[in-house]
Design goal:
237 residues, Lipocalin, 13-stranded mixed sheet, 3 helices, 13 strands, 16% helix
Length: 237
């Protein structure tokens, strides 16, 4: 006995309803599991530093004690890093004179360019555990360029939580028009990032935790964002 099949027009209508219902359910289910989340830096274990060499081989080292940033887990599971450093707070050792010069118009020019910003390309979450290239857009002295930093192989199973996640890389200061003291300083600026994350994962529609400060005066000021990590221009408090 042959099976009775529904008329073609009726079958098409039934299939359209099933597809529409599935799409409707998926549209409402998506935000429940795909909402981006983020973690902020732990100021007690996070440090951003840089160094240059003089034409005579001496090292000039500095730190950025004021910063803001986060690691976002995107809807597809990849990670994205955002970092912003305050140039007005840069310090060169214990030298007030060198610190003032670094903040001045012949170098970082903090009044005109108050932030150094880095926004990584989305990358696999395993990168922090395996080490490797961390590529992203660096904005420095009013110039934006793609740069690559290298994440070191970690010293523990959970880098960024139980030990520092460390990334290093050097850039040409002439690429960013940092052309002061050409006779005294070399071209390369080497950045080092030592990062740990505070416990707790937050959704991007939630408020971030209150600012915390370490005994050394390092601070981490973070603000909420929607979706992907944006390039934000609000000022430090």
């Amino acid at each position: 006995m042959s099976q009775v099949r529904p008329a073609p027009s009726r079958w098409r209508r039934l299939r359209s309803r099933v597809v529409a219902g599935a799409a409707f359910a998926a549209a409402f289910a998506w935000p429940a599991w795909a909402q981006p989340t983020f973690q902020v830096f732990d100021p007690d274990h996070t440090r951003f530093s840089f160094e240059l060499r003089t034409r005579w081989g001496q090292k000039v080292a500095g730190v950025f004690p004021r910063y803001d940033g986060e690691v976002t887990t995107l809807a597809d599971g990849r990670h994205q890093v955002r970092i912003r450093l305050a140039t007005a707070a840069v310090q060169l050792g214990d030298s007030e004179r060198y610190t003032r010069l670094a903040r001045g118009e012949r170098f970082f020019n903090a009044p005109l360019y108050p932030y150094i910003e880095f926004l990584s390309e989305p990358h696999a979450p395993d990168l922090v555990r395996t080490g490797g290239a961390l590529r992203g857009k660096l904005t420095l002295h009013g110039v934006s360029r793609m740069e690559t930093f290298v994440l070191s192989a970690p010293a523990c199973a959970r880098p960024g939580e139980d030990c520092d996640a460390i990334a290093q890389g050097s850039v040409s200061r002439y690429d960013y028009r940092l052309d002061g003291w050409q006779l005294a300083l070399g071209d390369r600026v080497r950045f080092t990032m030592q990062v740990r994350l505070k416990p707790g994962v937050f959704k991007h529609h939630e408020a971030k935790p209150a600012e915390s400060r370490s005994n050394e005066g390092r601070s981490n000021e973070s603000r909420p964002a929607d979706g992907r990590v944006p390039e934000r221009k609000e000022s430090f408090r």
